[in-house]
Design a protein that fits this description.
Distance between the termini: 52 Å
CATH class of the largest domain: Alpha Beta
CATH topology of the largest domain: Rossmann fold
Structural class: alpha/beta
Oligomer: single chain
Strand order of the largest sheet: 5-4-18-17-16-6-7
Number of strands: 28
Number of domains: 4
Shape: globular
Bound molecules: iron/sulfur cluster
Radius of gyration: 24 Å
């Protein structure tokens, strides 16, 4: 099926069907849902990103719709330490409104915080930002996307003047001659994407992967660079060093389309390949082969993902790779460029419409007077009444319940008890709150701590839009109504706004919210003003920016100019620095985290799907057989991974795919297997990204 059969349909008493997209990752694979009488059947749909493919998570997504763990009534906790009990909606909403009023009267407006998610639709992300700034008047709103794409976003903004994960359609991968993936494992995280890589390989193109582990993606590569975690920046600077010494610089492009190259040239001059080999473990010959493969072909693409980005120097690491792409003249040429593989389902749209601490809709800055005046005009409020910027996600959570932090928190679409770095600390902060509200459709680990839990609709029960990893705005279409007792987040926000203010009501109809979002974004970097649901329905989505209803959208950015004041991309000189927590005698190993094919993010959803549980039943600790022999650990034996912040316990999985100085654990499981009990909360100074991908640990038999 193409996107032409796009609205939910029902003929007579026959089965309904809806052409929609997967609820999970940013590939947003096209799928068709059919009501079968005793459930919902998922079918794959031909869409430009997935071309008829789905992964195991997509095929089984409907298993949660009628799952026994599904919440269909609000839950209330009457006293600290008491049990959650079923409640009516009026009881739950009144309790929240009273709690918010009480906290704000005692501690001021910023004592209430909002925490959103990168899986929320554009309409919800927008409504959440407006609810925080206008209804609650708090500066404290941020979201879990801060822990996904924020380093690539910050690097893209400072180099290109805009942050769109892929500035070109995904199909461009198939047209490249060389694809360099840095810290990305799409063969496991978004398998249908590999169809585009297959196109590249069939045309004779080369895939090069930079990853400390020989992942499923790295095993398919023509060349695998296996650096020590945390040394990608040095590797990127060495590649640029080689390109310069070999005479591969695109001089005309650098002169005409960029600024700031001279300082970068001076900086990378010190990144001698032999020294970078000693630092990173990547052989000089592989560095040369990679530089040559990027620089001596017509079309080359460099992509990053969380492996390169989730570091306390993530912004600078991405910047080093953007510097390399600019020096080779890649951005803006068809089949070439730099991009970031966004992770969460609406990781792109979720960072454009105001649920980030420093941001207003349209990717505007909240400290920009002109942006404040425009958005305040759409919202019908005085610009001076809008709060200023808040703090990034981890700082927001870390301060909860302290004199400088919020005393009440409303969580939508997130499960920080499992997904936050240094998670035990975050859990203790959540327990210190006067009021914790969680909107979710299951009792996630965070919901288990809440004073009020609100049951929300699932993806197959709601209409709205998502923006995929290409910057393509898509339609999410409902197959069926939510179960009795369940509401959408938009309805919840509207009901709370009605209780908390006597001002203009918040709309709860998603189409109406999207139209308002378009007006609020007009003129901003992420301009949706020309996008309507009908326009999306008439094609395979619409790429932003799209300022005019009658004008074109923008599948490819940067063809003629960059959206910077002078139209040029900006080089920034960046230097390698060690991980925030170096290894030492007590903690002699590097620890890194990631995902497995059959689970998704904190696992609150996928751990409940029987087929996915069978495929990936629990956590594990991956370690090299040589390291295991030294530690006296055998395959399947329980081990402890201990850092300065906590420990995880899980069975050992022995593999030569990992370096002997590094151990790996997936982060989908709670409790004793929670990888984020161990991870480091050191933050990137620009993006606020925590250093999920490297810390110092010791491993012992449990
Ligand atoms: S790759 Fe991502 S969007 Fe596609 S089916 Fe899997 S989880 Fe869903």
């Amino acid at each position: 099926m193409t996107d032409g059969a796009r609205t939910a349909t029902r003929t007579g008493s026959g089965p309904a069907q809806a052409a929609t997209h997967c609820p999970y990752c940013a590939l947003q694979c096209g799928m068709v849902l059919r009501a079968t009488g005793d459930g919902v059947e998922v079918g794959a749909r031909d869409f430009p990103t997935n071309r008829g493919g789905l992964c195991q998570k997509g095929w089984t997504a409907a298993d949660l719709l009628d799952h026994p763990d599904r919440l269909t009534t609000p839950l209330l906790r009457d006293r600290p330490g008491g049990e959650l009990r079923p409640a009516t909606w009026d009881e739950a909403l009144d309790r929240i409104a009273a709690g918010v009023r009480d906290v704000q009267q005692r501690h001021g407006p910023h004592a209430v915080a909002v925490f959103g998610g990168g899986g929320l639709t554009n309409e919800k992300a927008y409504a959440l930002g407006r609810f925080a700034r206008v209804t609650l008047r708090t500066r404290h709103i941020d979201y879990n996307g801060r822990w996904c794409m924020s380093s690539a976003a910050a690097a893209g903004n400072r180099a290109f003047g805009i942050d769109r994960g892929l500035p070109f359609p995904l199909a461009d991968l198939g047209r490249a001659d060389t694809l360099l993936l840095v810290g990305a494992n799409p063969a496991e995280t978004m398998p249908p994407l590999m169809r585009h890589v297959t196109d590249l390989r069939e045309r004779g193109g080369r895939l090069i992967v930079v990853d400390p582990r020989a992942t499923a993606t790295a095993r398919q590569a023509d060349l695998h660079l296996q650096p020590l975690p945390g040394t990608d920046l040095a590797v990127a600077n060495a590649l640029l060093h080689i390109a310069l010494t070999e005479g591969w610089l695109d001089r005309a492009y650098v002169a005409e389309r960029t600024t700031g190259f001279d300082e970068v040239r001076r900086t990378v001059a010190g990144y001698w390949p032999a020294e970078v080999e000693r630092l990173s473990g990547v052989p000089v010959a592989d560095l040369y082969a990679t530089a040559r493969a990027l620089a001596t072909v017509d079309r080359a693409i460099i992509l990053t993902a969380r492996g390169a980005e989730q570091h306390a120097k993530g912004v600078d690491t991405v910047t080093a790779l953007i510097n390399l792409a600019l020096a080779l003249g890649l951005p803006g040429r068809p089949g070439s460029g730099y991009g970031c593989l966004t992770g969460q389902g609406n990781g792109q749209g979720g960072r454009e419409h105001g649920q980030k601490a420093d941001q207003l809709p349209g990717y505007r800055r909240i400290d920009d007077p002109a942006a404040r005046a425009h958005v305040a005009g759409v919202w019908g409020v005085d610009p001076d009444s809008l709060p200023g910027p808040g703090v990034p996600a981890y700082q927001l959570l870390d301060a909860l319940g302290t004199p400088s932090g919020a005393r009440a928190l409303l969580v939508f679409g997130s499960n920080p008890v499992v997904s936050a770095p240094r998670a035990a600390r975050v859990e203790s902060r959540l327990r210190a709150l006067d009021l914790l509200v969680v909107a979710d459709f299951v009792r996630s680990e965070t919901a288990e701590l809440a004073d009020v839990v609100l049951p929300v609709a699932q993806w197959a029960e709601e209409n709205g839009t998502m923006t995929n990893l290409e910057g393509r705005v898509l339609r999410r279409r409902a197959l069926r109504e939510p179960p009795a007792g369940v509401r959408t987040e938009l309805e919840i926000l509207a009901a709370l706004a009605g209780r908390l203010t006597d001002g203009a009501p918040l709309p709860s109809d998603p189409r109406e919210v999207f139209a308002e979002l378009g007006r609020a974004s007009a003129g901003g970097p992420a301009d949706y003003a020309g996008i309507t649901w009908d326009r999306i329905d008439a094609d395979t989505g619409v790429f932003w920016p799209c300022p005019d209803r009658d004008g074109p959208d923008t599948p490819r950015l940067f063809a003629d100019r960059f959206p910077t004041p002078d139209g040029r991309a900006r080089f920034h000189a960046v230097t390698h620095r060690p991980a925030a927590e170096p290894v030492c005698a007590d903690y002699p190993l590097h620890f890194t985290t990631g995902r497995v094919l059959a689970q998704y993010q904190s696992g609150a959803q996928t751990r409940r799907v029987a087929a996915l549980r069978r495929a990936a039943p629990g956590g594990f600790v991956e370690l090299h057989p040589d390291l295991a022999a030294r530690l006296g650990v055998t395959e399947g034996a329980p081990v402890r991974v201990v850092s300065r912040r906590g420990e995880l316990r899980a069975p050992a999985r022995l593999s030569t795919a990992i370096r002997p100085d590094t151990v790996f654990a997936p982060f989908h499981w709670p409790g004793a297997q929670r990888a984020n009990s161990v991870t480091n909360d050191a933050l990137d100074p620009v993006s606020g990204m925590p250093e999920f991908k490297i810390c110092a640990v010791r491993v012992e038999p449990a």
